[in-house]
């Protein structure tokens, strides 16, 4: 078998030859990385400094089970509960997939070429308490190149609260293998400094009746790509992807989803809500592919954007590729400004204009937050995230 | 005694077209006035201009509430001053629960009036009692504002807002539109319960039917942007028989 080191060497060569993708790559048409990123990175931190404190940067909930990645390195891991095991990725070279597609995928070869930490998390049963994973770079010179592989055994269940903060450059690849009847609830909170770069890729493959629920909230950061790819390998599997993107300043945030229905009787629903202010640029590229044998697939995809400023820009590329004939698929997309009728209605009830605007925008986002209803600590998360949304809106008002 | 609401020689244009052409009207505290008129007579313009909606330009005349001009006031300040418009088509606002909306609204108005804001528990008691009188159940308070509400529920919800905001002057714009007879009765009961010696009401309607349930003291006929006739409640009955033909130029 090819060793881990050998694969990493190969990735370095591919990265040296190809670099970051540019506009000519269709998947990167709206987010030209070659123009925005340095051609190579030095990994600055080889050891952790002792004095890093995270403060109130995580998902706002107290959890016992927390992994912190500071500048790409995993800090000490507390005792793990039964049913959860962590091992090093170097010991599982077979999990670093090297399909032809992977070798030419910039997010994958760049990640592997620079990889600082790779871990495998095995979940063998229902884990009641949520698990938090936090990523933080302490300065603009710092990078985090991390790969995490989750393997959920049959019937396993986990709530994952992932958050990102700080400066520098973070590139995370999360691979999720879900066996039958397993469930992963995955919150991703992206709230970094305005020079920060985050390239976050989720790849999920679902066995029979497996469910993946993703809620992604992006509240800031300079350049971001939050990409999720799901493969439905067996009947009864379901994925729900809900994203709220709030951007201001000169932020450029790209939401890309690809739902690959290989199996019959699978369902997905994708919903994205974007709010853009100042000169922010938002992108939603959503693709649903239903393969020839994948009959009775139900897939919906909806993107709505609210533009608060004349200088902001939204790019939307919804795609359906359907090769089966007995399916129910729908997609829709809308871009608009604040509804003046609704604003007048609220003001006629004594609510001042700024508060009325905030109320309408919060309403627009809260439908995404409602997807946290079934998450462990869901109510607390909703309340705290709504506060963060309100703070964002007050800043931009 | 001076009038609660006084509209003086009001001229209003929308996109350079004059819609109201010298409308005058005064409503005293405790009175219910009805305004009836054919399509295009300016009924909706009147309700919107009173509430302060953008796009309606007052070119002449004035609107006084308790002697204070509303002309340059923002919509929210008019609400605080005691004006309330029940919308013909109440807006649906996804993601904002009815309860959150009502609480924000009531507390904004209370603070504007120099009163203390209500805490969550006292507001809940307050609103539940008012909602019960209008046969609005708790579930409707928890749902997003007007989303998925039937026509009758939306109108009852408008009356609920009126009842919690306790305005001096309420404008009801075509409150009967889209209602079946049972819903109409419930809404009218709600409105009648809010009739008060301190409060004025202006009921704007197309049909006489609503006035069977909300009995006005005075009826005005609006045609061509002016009040062309003012009379007793019988005027509404006459109109029902003869139609608006006599009043339309």
What does the model show?
The complex is a heterodimer of chains A (397) and B (249). With 397 residues, chain A is of the alpha/beta class. In chain A, 18% of the residues lie in helices and 41% in strands. Chain A folds into 2 domains: 4-338; 339-397, no CATH class. In chain A, helix 5 packs antiparallel against helix 6 (378-396). Chain A is globular and about 70 Å long. Chain B is an alpha/beta fold and 249 residues long. Chain B has a single domain (5-91, 149-156, 164-247), classed as 3-Layer(aba) Sandwich (Rossmann fold). Helix content of chain B is 37%, strand content 29%. In chain B, the strands form 3 sheets. Chain B has a 6-stranded mixed beta sheet, sandwiched between helices. In chain B, strands 2-1-4-5 form a 4-stranded antiparallel beta sheet, covered by helices on one side. In chain B, strands 7-8 form a two-stranded antiparallel ribbon. The longest helix of chain B is centred in the middle third of the chain and has 15 residues, at 98-112. The radius of gyration of chain B is 18 Å and the shape is globular. In chain B, 45% of the residues are buried. The model of chain B has no long low-confidence stretch (mean pLDDT 93). Chain A binds chain B through residues 339-342, 344-353, 355-356, 359-360, 362-367, and chain B through 51-54, 74-76, 78-80, 84-85, 87, 90-91, 93-96, 100-101, 104-106, 108-109, 112, 144, 161, 165.
The CATH topology of chain B corresponds to Rossmann fold
Oligomer kind: heterodimer
Number of domains of chain A: 2
CATH class category name of chain B: Alpha Beta
Largest sheet report of chain B: 6 strands, mixed
**Shape by Cα distribution of chain B:** globular
Mean pLDDT of chain A: 91
- Count up the domains of chain B: 1
- H and E order of chain B: EEEHEEHEEHHHEHEHEHEEH
Shape of chain A: globular
Calculate the terminal CA-CA distance of chain B, rounded to whole Å.
Answer: 35 Å
Query: Helical region count of chain B?
Result: 9
In terms of structural class, how would the helical and strand content of chain A be classed?
A: alpha/beta
The CATH architecture of chain B comes to: 3-Layer(aba) Sandwich
Helix coverage percent of chain B: 25-40%
Low-confidence stretches of chain A: none
């Amino acid at each position: 078998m090819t060793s881990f080191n050998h694969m990493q060497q190969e990735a370095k060569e591919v990265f040296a030859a190809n670099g970051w993708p540019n506009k000519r790559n269709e998947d990167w048409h709206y987010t030209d990385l070659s123009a925005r990123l340095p051609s190579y990175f030095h990994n600055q931190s080889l050891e952790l400094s002792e004095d890093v404190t995270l403060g109130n940067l995580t998902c706002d909930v107290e959890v016992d089970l927390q992994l912190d990645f500071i500048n790409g390195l995993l800090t000490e891991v507390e005792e793990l509960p039964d049913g959860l095991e962590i091992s090093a990725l170097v010991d599982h070279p077979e999990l670093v997939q090297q399909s032809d597609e992977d070798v030419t995928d910039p997010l994958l070869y760049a990640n592997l070429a620079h990889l600082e930490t790779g871990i495998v998390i095995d979940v063998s049963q229902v884990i009641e308490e949520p698990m938090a994973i936090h990523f933080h770079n302490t300065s603009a010179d710092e990078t985090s190149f991390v790969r995490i592989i989750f393997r959920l055994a049959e019937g396993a269940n986990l709530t994952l609260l992932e958050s990102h903060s700080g400066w520098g450059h973070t590139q995370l690849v999360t691979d999720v293998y879900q066996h039958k009847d397993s469930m992963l609830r995955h919150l991703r909170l992206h709230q970094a400094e305005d020079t920060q770069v985050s390239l976050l890729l989720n790849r999920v493959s679902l066995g029979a009746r497996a469910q993946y629920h993703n809620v992604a909230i992006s509240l800031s950061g300079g350049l971001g790509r939050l990409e999720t790819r799901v493969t439905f390998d067996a009947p009864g599997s379901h994925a729900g992807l809900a994203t709220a993107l709030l951007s201001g300043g000169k932020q450029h945030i790209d939401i890309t989803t690809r739902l690959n229905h290989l199996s019959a009787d699978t369902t997905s629903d994708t919903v994205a809500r974007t709010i853009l202010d100042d000169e922010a640029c938002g992108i939603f590229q959503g693709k649903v592919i239903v393969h020839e044998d994948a009959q009775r697939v139900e897939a919906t995809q909806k993107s709505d954007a609210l533009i608060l400023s004349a200088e902001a820009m939204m790019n939307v590329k919804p795609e359906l590729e359907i090769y089966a004939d007995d399916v129910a698929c729908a997609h829709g997309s809308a871009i608009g400004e604040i509804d003046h009728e609704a604003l007048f209605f609220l003001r006629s009830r004594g609510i001042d204009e700024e508060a009325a605007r905030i109320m309408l925008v919060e309403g627009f986002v809260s439908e995404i937050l409602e997807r946290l209803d079934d998450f462990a600590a869901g109510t607390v998360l909703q309340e705290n995230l709504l506060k963060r949304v309100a703070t964002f809106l007050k800043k931009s008002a | 005694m001076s009038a609660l609401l006084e509209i003086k020689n009001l001229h209003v244009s929308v996109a350079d077209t004059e819609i109201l052409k010298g409308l005058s009207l005064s409503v005293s505290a405790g009175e219910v006035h009805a305004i009836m008129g054919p399509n295009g007579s300016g009924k909706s313009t009147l309700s919107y201009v009173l509430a302060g909606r953008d796009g309606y330009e007052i070119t002449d005349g004035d609107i006084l509430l308790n002697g204070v001009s509303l002309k340059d006031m923002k919509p929210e300040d008019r609400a605080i001053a005691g004006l309330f418009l029940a919308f013909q088509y109440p807006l649906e606002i996804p993601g904002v629960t009815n309860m959150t909306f009502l609480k924000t609204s009531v507390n904004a108005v209370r603070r504007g009036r120099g009163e203390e804001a209500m805490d969550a528990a006292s507001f809940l008691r307050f609103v539940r009692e008012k909602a019960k009188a209008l046969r609005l159940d708790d579930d409707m308070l928890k749902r997003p504002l007007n989303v998925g509400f039937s026509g009758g529920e939306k109108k009852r919800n408008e009356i609920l807002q009126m009842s919690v905001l306790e305005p001096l002057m309420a404008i009801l714009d075509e409150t009967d539109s889209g209602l079946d007879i049972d819903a109409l009765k419930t809404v009218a009961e709600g409105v009648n319960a809010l009739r008060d010696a301190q409060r004025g009401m202006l009921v704007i309607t197309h049909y006489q039917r609503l006035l069977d349930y909300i009995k006005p003291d005075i009826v005005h006929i609006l045609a061509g942007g002016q009040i062309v006739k003012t009379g007793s409640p019988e005027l509404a009955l006459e109109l029902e028989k003869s139609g608006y033909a006599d009043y339309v130029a």
